[in-house]
Every structure is written in C-alpha cells, then in structure tokens.
Amino acid sequence: MAVKVNLSAITRPAVLSAIKEFDEVGQEEFLRRRGYAEARNFRLVYRGRFYDSKAIAGVAHGYATGHFSNSSEFSGGLATVADCLNDLGFVVDHGGKHARGGLLWDLETAQVFTRGGRSAAYKFVVLLWAVTHTDTYPGLVRVSEVRKELAELLAPFAVASSAPNPADPWVALRGSGWWTVEVPEGVDPAEVGHQALSALAVREDLRAGLTESVRHRLREAVWREEAIAVLTRRIGALSSPRRVHELVRLLGN
Q1: Is 120 exposed, middle or buried (0-12, 13-18, 19+ CB in 10 A)?
Q2: pLDDT tens track for 21-47
Q3: Is this prediction's pTM over 0.85?
C-alpha cells in the first residue's frame, strides 16, 4: 500500500537541497537513484533551469522529514505537487492535460535558425526585448516602430555575413505560444512561406507582440524572473556569456 507523502512537510530549503543534488549528479542519475521517471509535463523551473517536479518534491520530502519517498508512494496527483511547490515560491511549468510542457518549456524546445553549423539566438533576443518592454509596449506594436532598435540588439548575434533582419524573428515566432502576428485579411500564414511573410511584415508594417496568456503570466514577478532566466540562458548557450551580459545591460534589466 502506498504511503501518503505529506506535502505540507516539504520546505523551501528542502526543495533547494533536492535541486542541489540534481545539479551535482545530473538528471539521469538523480532519477535512477531516487526511483522516478522523467517528467512529461510538470517541470519545476529554478534560475532558468528545468527539473522533474515530482522527483524534486519526493526528494525534498526526504530532506525535510528523513523519509525519501519514491514515485509509487505518491497518492496525490502532479497538480497537487505543483500547488505545493508554487506555495513555496517556485514556478512549475505545465500545459494542458495532454501537453508535454508549458510556456517556459516551449522556449527550451523551440527550433532556431541555423547557418553554417551555427544556431541563431534571434527569437530569444526578440522575446527578451518584448518581456522587458511590457510597460513600454503594453500591446501589439508595428515592426517599423521597433525595427531599428531590434536591428541593433540582434547585430552582435549574427550567424551569417549579413546583419540579421528583425522581420525574420518577428514572424518566425508566430508558431509559438509566446507570440502573435496580425496578418491582413485573406492571408493564411500557414500557406505563406517564411520569406514571403517576412517581406509582408515590412511592406504592410504588421503588428506583433506577446500573446495575452504570456502577458498575464508576466504579471507574476517570480514567473517573469524565471522567463528572463530561461531566455538569457538560451541566448548564452547559442552565443556567449559576454554577449548576454551586454544585451541585458542594454535592455536595462
């Protein structure tokens, strides 16, 4: 018979101890050692990195009580674990019932433009700009209003001999849950190629920006902090820590 894990006994320091163990041994060894499977949807996000939330909660229970429970000892659902971790001030990223992740995990799995074996951080630079400018641009904005600013931010991250075109990530982001692009009536983005849509964005001065669901989540300080941490980590992995530092300085964040 499964032992009911007392989630109320878990403390924030205990969760941090579980995270520290995870970081020291790596995900695969952590899950094997502690008897858990890889998360499919619910993931704890801490300092821009992802952790299997049920495993972290179970190991945190051990640090808090001395009883290190494995996956079979949970009688509550993952949503209950998420509530517990949220109440302790952590972010748990998850999507719908059949999703494999939420908005933050979308950033981790997003496909990026690649040229000559180098992958571009363009999408993440534009998203970081948007996240840090929600007060300046509370809604959708025309590409002409920000094209010069984005061109300057994107230039250091070029992966080709030519400078990045801000209209490219402006429309390429439309496939994510983070971004929405207004297109003229009668235009089906699914049938229009990327280059054609990029040209259309400039010609028709298309408006775009963060989705309402993202703007809503960004009102939560801890979620906004983790979103920025994930974005800066992804940009750094695709470029360099120095460039990320300079970008953050320019954005004033």
Answers
A1: buried
A2: 999 999 999 999 999 999 999 999 999
A3: yes
